[in-house]
Specification:
By secondary structure, the protein is of the alpha/beta class. It has 18 helices and nine strands. Helix 10 crosses helix 14 and helix 11 runs antiparallel to helix 14. The mean pLDDT is 95. The structure holds 2-acetamido-2-deoxy-beta-D-glucopyranose (3 copies).
């Protein structure tokens, strides 16, 4: 082809991309009006459920524990791993035995049940589903304000991720005139929260359920925090209820809009256009990112398409569930631990901590319904809401750990969060941030909420 024609083609592509960029970035859709009473439970129970708030306790009953131990001990021999590999092919089967033995013989079910019941827990029926949550209200001296915060977990986590952080958030600290009233729900279909009985419950619908939970507890204005699916639900809450959410803290800040993909692509040629030089390696080269997604996101595609098939196996085999879930605590904490024979699992977590999390899936038989969340969120109907493109004025604060699955610079996040107050960039930490580094997590949440409160005070003053 002649040089002239190449240039013409390039010019047309550039103009086309430019026009598309302008169209995508300037034309923002409006927030949808979701049905705030949509019924997710069995139809015959409509209007007949008890909506009181009932105390709840985790119970590892003897029959369940006995059955679990029998299954753990009777597994068929694991297929030996290939020579010289770590976790590249998945959970290294040489590393499974100590975990399975620990779960069957050393994990103290009585003590762990007691541990899991250290905070007050409740269930209440919202839109046909019994929703489980932890609620810790601190006792404080006069002059200290107690402010509500909703903490949301994701997959394959649970409310367990927040156990170390809860006492830090409910304790007064120097330099702050407030402390948190903490509400930590299990996502619908996770742990002890009921699953929907029909399709359609994705992140925006979960946001409606949690908003209704906060109203049931008497909170019409509150702060929110989330990671993983919890981050997506927090994002939906900020988008759907900007007048209720006082501030939004996220440890997985991503805005997946066409506009940001264009910027990401442009940045692959000239990174300095989109990201500070010291953070370039969190985004580029793009080929690393593509390879990473292909190598590590098979589970996502599987769960977004056939959750019930894989769920049949995982719900039946505790060692299978262990391999499937615990593997994620290796690579999502440090990708480089993939090459270790033990997956580096005990780098920041103990066996008890990770098995507590497994118990919340096993004892409630919730693995299949937890994975369906992927299918719901990837449904055409949900994606058509274009939630990531809708702007929200809710003051937002991102905590960006070194080993989080994705990194986006503030300019990307501001396309949605017009009042992004700050992004804390850390050189440590991974995906399960609150679980891994509870002190840093609590410190950042306090800082963020202080900034949200100052922002509201200033705004009220300028509006007078
Ligand atoms: C398990 O924990 C319970 C309650 O904390 C304790 O009484 C018991 O001695 C423990 N069992 C073992 C085998 O350590
Ligand atoms: C989940 O769905 C929302 C639309 O409601 C979309 O914006 C978001 O990118 C989806 N996220 C994932 C991780 O699938
Ligand atoms: C905002 O984040 C930056 C970078 O992490 C940090 O240096 C700065 O102290 C933060 N600002 C506030 C008010 O915390």
């Amino acid at each position: 082809m002649a040089m002239g024609r190449v240039l013409t083609v390039l010019a047309v592509v550039a103009i086309g991309a430019g026009a598309w960029y302008v169209f995508q970035c300037l034309e923002a859709p409006k927030a949808p009006k979701l049905n705030l009473e949509e019924w997710w439970g069995p139809n015959e129970l409509k209007g007949k459920v008890d909506t009181s708030i009932r105390p709840f306790r985790v119970q590892f009953d003897q029959a369940m524990v006995q059955d679990l131990k029998t299954r753990l001990k009777n597994h068929r021999p694991f297929t030996p791993p290939l020579e010289g590999v770590g976790f590249e092919y998945g959970f290294n089967s040489k590393a499974i035995d100590p975990w399975v033995q620990y779960w069957a013989d050393k994990y103290n079910f009585t003590a762990r049940e007691k541990f899991l019941n250290q905070f007050p827990q409740f269930k209440t029926n919202i839109q046909g589903l019994d929703i489980h949550f932890i609620r810790v209200t601190p006792m404080v001296p006069q002059g200290v304000k107690v402010v509500p915060i909703l903490l949301m977990h994701g997959w394959p986590g649970s409310v367990r991720e927040f156990y170390e952080a809860i006492p830090l958030l409910t304790q007064q600290r120097a330099g702050y005139d407030f402390v948190f009233d903490v509400v930590v729900p299990s996502l619908p279909g996770y742990g002890f929260s009921d699953p929907a009985v029909r399709p359609g419950l994705a992140a925006p619908q979960a946001a409606v359920i949690f908003r209704n939970l906060m109203h049931r507890l008497g909170f019409t204005k509150y702060y929110i925090q989330g990671g993983d699916w919890g981050a997506l639900i927090a994002s939906s809450l900020s988008t759907l209820f900007p007048d209720e959410v006082l501030g939004h803290h996220t440890n997985m800040a991503v805005v997946q809009s066409g506009c940001n993909y264009v910027k990401l692509f442009v940045g692959s040629f000239i990174p300095s256009l989109v990201v500070d030089s010291h953070l370039v390696d969190r985004m580029y080269p793009l080929s690393n990112w593509v390879a990473y997604v292909l190598e590590e996101f098979g589970y996502f595609h599987l769960q977004a398409t056939k959750p019930d098939t894989i769920g049949t196996a995982l719900n039946d085999s505790p060692s299978g569930l262990l391999a499937y879930i615990v593997e994620k605590f290796s690579t999502w904490t440090r990708l480089e631990h993939r090459s270790r024979a033990d997956g580096g699992l005990e780098f920041r977590f103990t066996k008890d901590q990770l098995i507590d999390n497994l118990m919340l899936y096993w004892s409630s038989k919730s693995i299949t319904t937890s994975m369906r969340f992927y299918a719901e969120n990837m449904s055409k109907k949900n994606l058509a809401l274009r939630m990531d493109e809708i702007k929200t004025p809710v003051p937002t604060w991102a905590l960006q750990a070194k080993n989080e699955l994705f990194y986006q610079p503030p300019s990307f996040l501001r396309t949605k969060y017009t009042n992004l107050l700050n992004a804390t960039v850390l050189e440590d930490g991974g995906h399960f941030f609150a679980f891994e580094l509870p002190q840093l997590f609590a410190d950042d949440v306090f800082k963020a909420v202080k900034a949200f409160r100052e922002w509201h005070t200033k705004k009220a003053k300028t509006e007078l």
